[in-house]
Every structure is written in C-alpha cells, then in structure tokens.
Amino acid sequence: MSPASPAMNLDFSAIAPVAIVAMGAMAVLVLEVFLARMRSLSEFHVSVALALVATLALVLALGTAGQAFLQGTSSVFNADNPMLRLDRFSAFATVVVGIGALLSVWMSMQYLIELRINHGEHYALLLISTAGMMVLVAAVDILTVFLGLEILSLPIYVLAGFDRRKTTSNEAAMKYFLVGTFATALLLYGTALLYGTTGETGLDGIRAAFPSDNPLALAGLGLVVVGLAFKVSAAPFHQWTPDVYEGAPTSVTGFMSVTVKAAAFAALLRFAGGDVEPAAENLGRILWGIALLSMVLGNITAVVQDNVKRMLAWSAVAHAGYVLVGFTAGAPGHGAVLFYLAAYLFANLGAFAVIVALADRGRDQDRIESFAGLARRRPGMAALMTLFLLSLAGLPGTVGFIAKFQIFSVAVRAEELSLAIVAVLTTVVSFYYYLRVPVWMYMRDPGETPPRAGLDTPEAAVLSACAIAVLLLGFFPNGGFPVPVLQDATVLAWAHEAAAALR
Amino acid sequence: MITVEHVLALSGLLFAIGALGALTRRNLIVILMCIELMLNAVNLAFVGFARAWGDLGGQVVVLMVIAVAAGSVAVGLGIVIALFRNRDSVNIEDVSLLKW
Fold first, then answer.
1. What interface predicted TM-score (ipTM) does this complex get?
2. Mind telling me how many Å the CA of B40 is from chain A's nearest CA?
3. Which residues contact residue B19 at a Cβ distance below 8 angstroms, ignoring those fewer than 6 apart?
C-alpha cells in the first residue's frame, strides 16, 4: 500500500452495490421507528413496508452489479491503492448473495410474526450483512477482506440469537460468535504474516511477491485458509455448524447457509485464484485434505440425524467439500465453483423455506417425525421439499446435477481421480438421507397434530421462485428457454466468464 | 535495538496465549478477553511489520482492527447478557442444549 496521492482517483461505481444496500439498511432502521408508532398499521403491513424498502435496495444493487457484469467493465475503488474491485467475478458473486438476501427477506416475513420476534431490525441486519458480503467478494486488499468478513459476520451473530427468549437461539448465537471471532483472529494473524513476508497489503501484490520458500508466508496462507474454512463450515472446522443451524431461527439459517458460504468461497477464490500463484501447490494440498474430510464426514454424519435442520447442516459441510473439489482442479474448476454456489443457493434456500413455511404454533416443526404424511396434508409442500432435496442430492433434471457434474468432470480432467471417486461415492450415500424425508412425507401416516393451514403469499412466491430456478437451471443451464429474458440467461457460461476475470 | 523478530516473537506468544485461553477457559467473559488478546497480538504484528517495511498500510489495518474489535465486543457482550438472562450463568458448560 503506497501513501495516497492528494488527488485521489475515486471510482464510486465500484462500491455502488455496497453503498446502495448499506443505505437501504439505514432506511429500514429509520422507517421502522416511524411505522411502529402508527397504530393503524398491522404488524404484517409494517413488515411488508420494510421488506419493500429492502427489496428496492437489493434490486437496485443487483441491477448495478448485473449491468457491470454484462458490460464486462472492471472498476476499482481508488485506483492508486486498490481496495475493492467490481469486475465480472465480484459482480457475479454480488448477484448470488443479493438474490439470496432478497429471497430471505420475503421468506422470513410471516415466520417472524409466527415466532413473535417480528422486529424491523431483522431486515436492517440482513441488509448490513449482505453489504458486508458484497465488500468481501469485491475485496482486493487484506484490509477490505477483514472489513467485509466482519461486516458480514457481526449482524449474523445477532440474527442467530434473534429469538432471544429461546435458550437454543441464545446458544446458537454464542457458539457462532465465539467460533466466528476465533476464526477471524486466525485469518487476521495469517494476513499479518502475509503482510510481514511480502510488505504488501494488496492481494495482487502479495501474490506477486509471495516467497513460497518462507515458512512464515506459508503459515500465513494456511491461517487464512483455516479462517475462511471456518466460515464455509468445511471439516475439520465445522463443529459449530449443526448447533448453530439448529438453534438459529430457520429463516436466518437459510440465509446464512447459502450467502455466507458463497461470499467466503468467493474470498477464498480471490486468494487462490489466478495462475501466477507460487503458493498454488501448497494451497492445493491443504484444500485437498479439507475437501476429502468434509465430504466424508458431512455425508456420513448426516445419515444419522433426526432433525431436518441438523441434517441440512451436515449436508452443508458435505457441500463445502464438493465446492473445494473444484478448487483443487485449479483455474478450470473456479467457474464450476461459482456455478455450484449459485445452484446451492436455490436448492438449499428452498429447502429451508419449506421448513420456514411449516413452522407452527410459534416453533419450528423440524423433527423428521413432523414430516410424516405431509404429502397427504400439504401435497404441494411435500413435492417442493422433494424437489429441493433431490437437487441437493444431484438428481438429473435439477440444477444440483449440473453443478455436481461440472465439479466432478473438472476433477477428473485435473486427474484428481481419488477425490472424484470419493465425491461420487459420498453422493450416493447422500441420496439415503435426502430421500429419507420424502419417505416420511409420502409413506407414513400423518400424526395427530393438524398443521398450520395456509401458505402465505410471500412464502409461496419464494418457494416457487426457488423451484423454478432449480428446474430451469437444471434443464437450461445455458439459456435457450423460449421466454424472452430467459432465452439469453446463460448462467453456466456466465459463471465461467466470471471466473476468468480472476486471472 | 528491537528488531522485527522481537516483535514477531512477542506477538506470536500473545496470540498463542490468547488461542490457548479461548480453547481451554470455561467462562464466557474470559474467552472474550482471550479473543481480544489474539486480536491485539495481530495488531502488534502489523505495527512491527509496518515499521520494518517502512510502510503505512499495516498501521491503517491496525486502526481498522481496533475499531471493528470494539464493535465485535459489543455484540459478544450483548449475546452474553441475553444468555445470562435466560440461564443465570456465563459458564460455557451450561450452554449445551444443542448436541448431535
């Protein structure tokens, strides 16, 4: 980092998505105070108003990022001293986390009322966290990597404990906070070592000057990887995952399971990406072990879970492993990683949205027994849950298949055969626990308890959006669906173009 | 003469003490303090390296870390209070409802 010149060369278009989302968060906070005083408005209407503001901010940010992506421009915030870079890579990742946040906003509305934790701060925290993710995915300096990571994490610690009267929610927040800050400290120490051995804070500078024979530099890189591995819940840094996923309110779990993972993997790609990486070999070896352990441990432990949220948490560990397989394949794998993150977003968020929509009498109905006979009581919900779980498992016709196929084929092409074989075998195992839920839903008799009657419009919208995305990307990953806008939605090609911007 | 090796050794030691404390202590407040110790070890390393390279970048990072650490302590203590209200305990062993 060189001292800034007096006439700073600031390009604000690089931080436009972040700024818009952050301002949206402030607007939600202020608006909530005013709306809460108006007695004539019902709780639901206040939520709708806040969600609309959040939606406006997110849509504007998505539009800016999407435009930057389609134009292929690369704008850097502060060209003298690059901090954030909005190129095709960060634009793609920004759109992924933005869509995740948008779906989470609408998914959580009725759920918060059902759980009696409907405070407007929820939407503000969600937006602040999203802004942090957008900082992290665009970060090209260790300073912004750290800032982005903390801005995304702190609101999520609060959101995990949002149901503050429930001890499980307190506990989830506490565990996530302790593990998360510990991981941040590890990552920071790693960046300090990288800075010490290269004299650079910019990621490009660090990469160019990386002394691969210096043990301190290697330790620094290792600590950074460990810090980010905590965030993406890759084994052996996953112990917090099931507890936090189970204890946090389900809408929050859905949000963090997809967006935090996407943002942290994007940051890892920034560290690992580029083909002039002297440390690539060492990094590859660490990631190889983490990938293997995550796939095996995640898939096997998920088999014995009786709580669906917990099962999805262990499946999240497993999916972190699959994504890391893409990392070991080097540059061709990076596009596959980005597509996997997009695919995982819709399938996993959809599965959590079903659990959200099934919440009844102020609590989650997340035990596997409460899914018994769901197909008879709520056939639509049962069908959607089956679709999302099959996509997570990777059944052909769903987006999960395309994503997994991409990952496996780049692993084979990179001659990571043992890793590819483990990936395929663990996928077979995963069908067992994913299909267990449909078995309960379709082949068991419903229990005594009558379920919550209707499905609310926002929840229905989120569920159908996820389902359409899962099927559409499953059949037309490269566009061609005969509808004007979707015709050109070549998401798979976009993911590879985004990854190419890393180099 | 204090060299960068001295600074690095001290910061490494502080970081190790903090990490060990965070992993072994049972009181939530003490764990929070240990994590703060780790962050301060990071600050020390950054300042030492910044001096060795004659570069301001590391010192800017330290200022940011100090600011963010304050925010993260606020969130952490808030969570501890929420927990204490429901449990009357700040011992981590009493926080074990969720198990696989």
1. 0.95
2. 9
3. A182, A185, A186, B34, B38
